[in-house]
Amino acid sequence: EALEFDVAEPQGLRHLSFRVVGRELLDTPAGEFETIKVERIYRNGGRKTYMWAAPELDYFMIRMEHIENPLVRGKIELTSIDWLTDDVAAETAGEQTHARTP
Question: Distance between the two ends of the chain, CA-based, in angstroms?
Answer without folding.
Answer: 51
